[in-house]
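note to self: the first set is below, dont mix up w the second
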Amino acid sequence: MDAYLSKANNAVPIVVIDYGNRNHILGGYSSSSMVSKHQREHQTQEPSRVSSDCTVVEETSNLESAILGRRVESFDALRAVFEALFYENFGWIKPEEEEEEEKNKKNVFIVEPILASRRERERVCQMLFEEFRVSGYAAENAAVCALAGVGRLNGISVDVGAETVDCATVSDGKIVESTCRRIEGGGERCCEKALSGTTVREGKEIYAEMEKWERMIVNRHLARVRWNADDDGKNGGGEGMESYQLPDGNKISVETKDAFALGDALYCCSSNTDDDANSKIVEAIQSAVENSFRHAQAGHFFSHGKENAFECIVAHGTESSVKGLRERLGEDIRTKIAPESAKVNVVASAPDYLHEKSMEHLSWTGGAVLGKVTWNLNQQISKSAYEEWGPNVANRSRNSF
């Protein structure tokens, strides 16, 4: 693969887009050396919203109406978001104004959410070819991209996002469709928990007036996930305070016991965790793995037995950085799902050569890697292929079990 990547560095620029979040969209070139000089943030000065390799576009009115629950709700709104990304951030020239030599330099790789429908896939493909006049297009599932981001072809992807938690297994670089699971929850459950009762002790009024995505940033710094369901958090300083200082100098503080309550809301995917100590995430992983064994084909990764099934669990996504989440996930899988002889490994961080925040945007990072390989091997959908097959060509190129 290294040889492919080195050859691809001189290829035409490939824009990689991950649109599977309601409150932001990720876009950037597949090579970090090609990052747009137009890179900037929209409607926020929070530096953590942008990684070193991609742009986070904040288009509140369009984006929130475009994406809901990681599904495209309005293609008109999505088109407006793409226009901002292509023409403002990456300096694309509009089709009616571009010169002849510019027509073959528009290539797009889409990181699509799990459970994306055939209709959604076709409409996005059609929009890119017919309205933005791209010369090449490719797409891959977010779970496959996440595994590629840490250099793996087999494993379990757990994408902890703002609205949902998506779980799926990947075998030999292909998504196992029957294992895709989506849980309503994610970072929004932390917000609901923090706004209920008296959880926030200092800066409560400031917190209440924040935009939802701003509260999620604060929650990532304040929330703690306990080691197991019986842990009261005292061993980790459960009787103190957790604080986060905002860029303007104001401080948001919660008691440590309430920080663990926020973590419970995220991990259990429920703002009411008093009687719900079980994690829906673990239940989804168990269901996904069982389906992997049931549908495994001879010779594929999940046909080798449960002992190897848990050796690569990748917890990623914007809310995955909450302290203790990966440790709790590994402990619950080890004690509740995996056989005693199984090796359980929850990937704790991105490879050293990636940006420190890459785990939050791992699907995009993996898409950037796969984008290089796809064009280098000439496996993208060309304009001529689209003209021959129409939008359905996006489904003909699906890479899944």
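second set (the one i keep forgetting abt)
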Amino acid sequence: VRALVSPILAPTVHGSHARRVYMLAVVVAAAGFAARARTLTPESSRWPQPHTLARRRQLQVAMLEEEAGPSLPSIPTVLYTALGATAVYGLSEKVPRLLSDGPSEALAPLALDVFFFGFACVSLAKGMGLIGKIDYAALDGRDVGSLAKEAGAWAAAGEVPTQSPDGFEVATFAGGCFWGTELHFQRIPGVVATCVGYTQGGVPAPTYEQVCSGTTGHTEALQLLFDPSECSYESLCAKLLSTVDPTARNRVGNDRGTQYRHGIYSHTPEQAEAARRALELEQAKQSAPVVTEMLPARVFYPAENYHQRYLQKGGQNAAKNAPEKVRCYG
């Protein structure tokens, strides 16, 4: 945007240099898009056929380990960097001229450069987690049906719990946009408390901006407490699989990217066995490979408070067995 607008405002100041910077920004952005395109590759093109479910699980773990190394810059990071670089270039030309000649017709483009440079710096700082850290102690608690504060305490201690202090079992699932996933599970009798957050990544205590960059390895997820005397873990797995296309990798609905992959993350060997059975039953219904992750639970980092119970706060019904359709957007 800056590369397009600035030459229009000050064509005599930038001249051919602006065109060079513009083309550089376009090339860098295009390279970023091409490099990140692999994360959106349909799953069916990446799994050799055929595979047993167990073999796919082994390949899935190997693929995650492969992708756990240094990751490519995300598309927003590439664009913000290009934006900041072009703004710096513009400032390097205009500031000396302003100091030597005084205010001129280049004042408006100078202000534009300052604005875009500041915007790029703030955006990059958020993406790197330098600002906007989450205060886990300030998150919602059980008094409003939220597990966020307890999950924050577990995350701060590096714990992967199996039970809450009052004896409820802990479960973790990922089903795309966590707003909708949370509301689906809030409505299930026997689910005591829920919270949304991030898991299965390599960066401690990530923020929403970091996870959305697609470079931390996290997926948007839900952690909950449930009473196994009222609802079984198998039924919770079945519910998750009913809300996603289990054959679509890194995609749920129109949300695409590694942060939207779906998964079942077991906290105990018993949960792992139940998850395996649920995925085998699902595979029997599908002609394409089921690619829902089945992995041991890792530290779960609760999301910012404004994400917690988001759809309920927006007016959607979270009552048990509520029949209304879950609307993640709109």
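remember for set 2: The first strand starts at residue 169 and ends at 175.
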